[in-house]
Amino acid sequence: MIFQACVDQRFDNPGEGVSVSKNSAFAEEFAHNIRTIFANVESKLGEPSEIDQRDKYAGVCGLFVLHFHIFRTVDKKLYKSLLDVCKKVPAVTLTANIIWFPDTFLINKVPAAAKLMDKKSLQAIRSSRDAFLQQKAQTLTKDVQSYYVFVTSWMMKMEAILSKEQRPDKLAEDLSNRCNVFVQGILYAYSISTIIKTTMNLYMSMQKPMTKTSVKALCRLVELLKVKFVILQFSGSGLERLIIQVLLRFLFNLTVIYSYINPFSASPPWLKGSCSVCVRLVCASELFARGRGCAHAHLLDKLCKEIEKDLRLSVHTHLKLDDRNPFKVGMKDLAHLFSLKPIRFFNRFIDIKAYVTHYLDKTFYNLTTVALHDWATYSEMRNLATQRYGLVMTEAHLPSQTLEQGLDVLEIMRNIHVFVSRYLYNLNNQVNFTYQFLQKKFYIFSQFMYDEHIKSRLIKDIRFFRETKDQSDQKYPFERAEKFNRGIRKLGITPDGQSYLDQFRQLISQIGNAMGYVRMIRSGGLHCCSSAIRFVPDLEDIVNFEELVKEESLSDETQKAASVLDSVLSDLTTNSAEGTEYFKMLVGVFAPEFRSLKNMHLRNFYMIVPPLTVNFVEHSIGCKEKLNKKNKNGAAFTDDGFAMGVAYILKLLDQYQEFDSLHWFQAVREKYMKEMSAVVKEQNVQATSQDEKLMQTMNLTQKRLDVYLQEFELLYFSLSSARIFFRADKTAAEETQEKKDRGG
């Protein structure tokens, strides 16, 4: 699945001007490299010098499939060559008992190429697996005998060269002989291991019974592999020491000699291969594992605990948990350890700085997930780790709150002084993302209002109200808004049952929620600013500390500190004095465009507010009813974003007076009061009757009317409150005149 997801991903990105699939030069270079790699691999498959060619063969097949998925072209000759390898390598053991069949892989992943092959060839390749297993079962006993002779001979050579005294005058020749024998042993071991794994995994995957002779032969091969490098049957601990001594001595001699002759990159191939083999053997030994374990247990892990303890105690000094007076308890300077470069331990590196950083990142992240309200503590510990030890820590990117009701933005800002002194310094930075968001939403808003069905209906409603307002006591009829809400469903609904007006209501709620978020962030910033500035006696008269320090001719460090203090006080004073003018910015930036002649269709907005409120109330009641149901998907008890969005858009269009002229909420109140009064009268008339069902129906009707009236009242209060933020008491003309008067 991982491989399939890799090759199926999109490699072209027209938006960025990236077209991989049509890059013929890259396609040809890609194919050329596949052919070159395959030629090198195929020549050594099944040969005595084979080491990792089977793994590389699997890689070449994967590259071939990737090339096909990107460029959709097939090199039939190469495809056939890849399949022909299956005759001598029918399966590849990837790891443990995970076996990979190249023919199945290539046929399934490149079906277009498989169709170009004749059926007989494909059938021959499939049957080669059975033929290989049959042949291997017949030759297994002979293979054991051959390898028994090879391994015995190799062991004798190895014992001879290890017991032989080194000749100082022929040191290079002796080392060359040792390396040749050693590498030959590795090749024998690989061949034996391949026979064992391939044969056993084929029997298991094909679910074929194994003969007693084959089992015995495989056991003999396992035994040969086990004693391959033992040379003589020593005990475990003695053997480990012997191997380590030989290999370390061997590597030391190589290093000393060739450090004087030439750089390692220019050394002969047998030297590179031998060193690599020696290192792998040492790393595979239990002694190597013990060495690494000791380094972790006695150095790295203890260092991690010490650093964590130091950071934790430093952050919690106010709790007085321990005596941290360096003159009494001493002082450990651990910072110098992080200036060390990574230490090489055979073929691995021990990076102390990276190890400790990873430990702290992991620990702080895990502990923050358990207790989100401690986010500030671990954030401070991260900052301290950077300042004190130079560790580059990773942000946790977890939600920061106190797990109490609501989004605790005030708590987030309470101690983030950098945020207060820098981020809030320029309000444009704060509302920039909101502006970009609103710009996209208003484009959709304009499209909806420009729709012919919507525009024509609103124009009819405006004309109707102007002609009948004297007869309706200047109130927009509730029935008209309700008819609009229901009639718009005829234009079509989404798969989840939403009308266009439902989606328009959601759009306005999203706009209002964006405004609410800006207000929430800004309020939190002001709260934090006021808390930080409360120690300043007089905001109107703040002395300049840098000038006072210079007058006293104090040190440069003191002057720098005084300058920083002046800067902080200046920022805090500026932020505290900014007031609540942030909504003005978001009104001022969009209002001219909304009120321009080219957007005349937006001036009908005030007339769609009544049906929008009807739609909103129905939606709100439905969300609240879901709170009592088992399936609470979509349940909610409040949504003030809608009221905020309506108030904001009415302000942008300067239509508060137009909307107020509808006396909409008065019409709603009269409508429901009238219906409730009628129900009460009917209940009084039917009180003498014994019709319980009729009485229950009337009670339910009265309850429903109460709920609807209450929702409309709540919406009215929310809208009235939201209008205060945008100074609904003044029209655009009055605000302009006020600015002129203020300027004069």
TrEMBL record:
Entry's Gene Ontology cellular component terms: endosome; WASH complex
One Pfam family it belongs to: WASH-4_N
Domain WASH complex subunit 7 C-terminal per the UniProt entry, residue ranges: 558-727
InterPro entries named among the record's database cross-references: WASH-4_N (IPR028191), WASH-7_C (IPR028283), WASH-7_central (IPR028282), WASH7 (IPR027307)
Positions of the WASH complex subunit 7 central domain: 294-431
GO BP term (any one): endosome organization
WASH complex subunit 4 N-terminal domain boundaries: 2-227
Protein name: WASH complex subunit 4
